[in-house]
Amino acid sequence: MSSLRIRIDDRAGSLPPYEQVRAQISEQARSGALPVGHRLPTVRGLAETLGLAANTVAKAYRALEADGVIETRGRNGTFVAAAGAAAERAVAAAAREFARTARRLGLDADAANHAAADAVRAVYEGPAV
Question: Which 8-state DSSP code applies to residue 74?
Answer without folding.
Answer: G
